[in-house]
Amino acid sequence: MKLYNISLQSLRRRKAKTIFLIIGLILSVASVVMLLTVSKNVNASIAANLDEFGANIIITPKTDDISINYAGMSINSVSYNNKELHTNDVEKIRTIKNKDNISIVAPKLLSVEIVNNKNVLITGIRFNDEMKLKKWWNVNGKIPSEVNEVLIGSEVKKKLGIKLNRQLKIRDKDFIVSGILDATGSSEDGMIFMDINESQILLDKKDKVSLIEVAALCYDCPIEEIVRQTSSVLPGANVTPIKQTIESKMTAMHRFEHFSFGISAVILIISMLIVFTNVNASVTERTKEIGIFLAIGFRRSHIMQIILLEVITASLLAGLIGYVIGSLASRFIVPVLTMDESIRIVYDYSLPLLSVGFSLAIGFVASIYPAVRATRLDPISAFRSL
């Protein structure tokens, strides 16, 4: 009789312990598969939400400044050879190699104008992009949808004494205040926002842009690489990553990843204990059987192979079943954690092999000592117990 036949018959004969061993491994493999899948998808979802929650790259025109000292006196710096940003630069950003990591590109045109005898900062924006970028904005009224509509900050409302749906004259052109932005605690409270195309016409700055805010998905791509690629297509611009914002986002992501790895490590230890306890108890119960094998000519290496084959067979089956259960469980857990029922779950195609390998590794490592202990049994002592 071949060794693997003996192992299979032993598994069939000891059904209760075999089922307990397989269930323990299945739960372990399923838990790890579920954790890895959930972690990957939840991390990607959180990263996308965080990256869209405000810009993490600012693009401004490049300016050469010279600081002048004359006769021991410091004179204000002089700017020359100023570069400019244009509307078509926005499209150039979308052509970089990692363009899929670019979530939102929000150009702005800024100009200080006199409105109702007060200096006010006029800001031309793309309202759709801006509302995606500034998700914390709360607008009373409605977002401007017509070229003659504007959105004003809370400080502008106080400064100009203007109310919702009233007319506002900027450079001899009438606009309607369709919305008032609640206080944000930033410079945006003192701005008047209008459509960027209308502002370019109104301010006589056709196709000009003052700065560009970019929300880049830096979860799976270094932000420095996106900055480098953007700088290459916009040589006349300063491309600056907002380091503090990026580091805060990545810290949050790493904490979740570390939590997942920590739980996986605990599961690994518990799984090994289950296998070790099961196999060790099996060896103790089979003292007589092992003694007979040794007495009739089986080598000690054969005894070890029989026990390891039993565990490997159970581990292989548990790895496949555990992968299926873990994948199915993640389909229900990911939408709950992300609070997004429409989320598309991405599976790692290497997980089936990883699951089987994980299960085999646990079974093999945890059963080495019991297998070695079985080879050291004295057949004479085993016969004494008959």
Notes on the protein architecture:
The chain is of the alpha+beta class and 386 residues long. The protein folds into two domains: 3-50 and 250-384, no CATH class; 57-241, no CATH class. The chain contains twelve helices and 14 strands. Strand 5 (102-115) and strand 6 (118-125) form a beta hairpin. Helix 1 packs across helix 10, helix 2 packs antiparallel against helix 8 and helix 2 (15-52) runs parallel beside helix 10. The longest helix has 43 residues, at 243-285.
End-to-end C-alpha gap: 24 Å
What series of H and E elements makes up the topology?
Answer: HHEEEEHEEHEEHEEEHEEHEHHHHH
Anisotropy-based shape:
rod-shaped
What is the number of helical segments per DSSP (H or I, 4+ residues)?
A: 12
Q: Please bin the fraction of helical residues.
A: 40-55%
* Proportion of strand residues: 15-25%
Radius of gyration: 34 Å
| Oligomer classification | single chain
**Count of beta strands:** 14
Low-confidence stretches: 66-81
- Structural class, by secondary structure, is alpha+beta
Largest sheet: 10 strands, mixed
> What's the overall average pLDDT, rounded?
81
The total domain count is 2
